[in-house]
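Q: I'm writing up a methods section and want to include an example of the input and output format. Could you take the sequence below and give the corresponding predicted structure tokens, formatted cleanly so I can copy it straight into the document?
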Amino acid sequence: MSAFQPDFKIGVLGGGQLGRMMIQSAIDFNFNVHVLDPDNNAPCKDIATSFTTGALTDYDTVYAFGKDKDLITIEIENVNTAALLQLQKEGKKVYPQPQVIELIKNKVKQKKFYLNNFIPTAQFVETDNKADVASKKHFLPFVNKLATEGYDGRGVQVIREEKDLEKAFDKPGFVEKLIDFEKEISVIVARNESGEIKTYPTVEMVFHPVHNLVEYLFSPATISNDIEEKAQQIAHDVIQKLDMVGLLAIEMFVTRDGEVLVNEVAPRTHNSGHQSIEGNTTSQFEQHLRAILNLPLGATDISLPSAMVNLLGEAGFTGDAVYEGMNEVLATPGVHVHLYGKKVTKPFRKMGHVTIADHDINSLKEKVKFVQAQLKIKA
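A: Here is the clean output for your methods example:
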């Protein structure tokens, strides 16, 4: 059945902002998108074709949701993959494939995949608990990461000295050699069922120094042609070796000696691709739909140099969101505000993002500073 037939049903596990922006692209094609999410007030609630409240990790809930869908996809990895595997066995299309989701949502399995497939990544040692992390002090400095449950900066601890070992996680994970990197970059890559692959030009990310989530990014990244070629080839290799259908975000480190190492990946649309809505010929959200529906992949060329600034809830404020400085930001040429439909703000909660497009890179950087200083989300 064609996705363009009126009774074709796309099911999405997860109703957050990524699902919301996916639906906004799906509306252009008149696709029917049905959403499952545990939050009855999730960002997708009012724009999905139908919205079901339920746990994404519960087998029966996910299985029942997927039974009448023609294709099931995700906007978050923490889902019940056993239910998705059963739906796949029964003939449902599930993209990305359940076995790929299962591998990627466990960061230890991710790291082993890179090692087994000769994909460059930082040295690591698997750990069982806090005591096991402490026994690896000869490996310092390192980053302690949880195998599962890490998201948006959670589940990551930088441990530089022995006195920092008290911050280690008391759950299974790994310690990874702390990389002396020059830049953090990301490449979004898509692959459809026919095997067509397209990558987006590399972007450069700047992370919050404490909360380990992206504050802003620039597209294209300021890197050499050699680094660009390495990053693009790695992205191509990873999605091909995973044999994955869908959209994959690959975060990487550029070391000071010119190496490119994979940090981690996400089998879905991603914060590092938001600038593509205004900055590239095809947005990552449209590309995701094209990939999972086995449509021709869209052009990924940069329309204009662009930046993306995450709009985070201000520290010390929890409650109904109040936006300060919105008029000043909206009066700035090239600025596009995207709010996620979240009524309540919390410290550092992602409430939206701003995309800025400009022919001049210096002007782009100045506008990023202006947006960060001007637009505040309080309660």
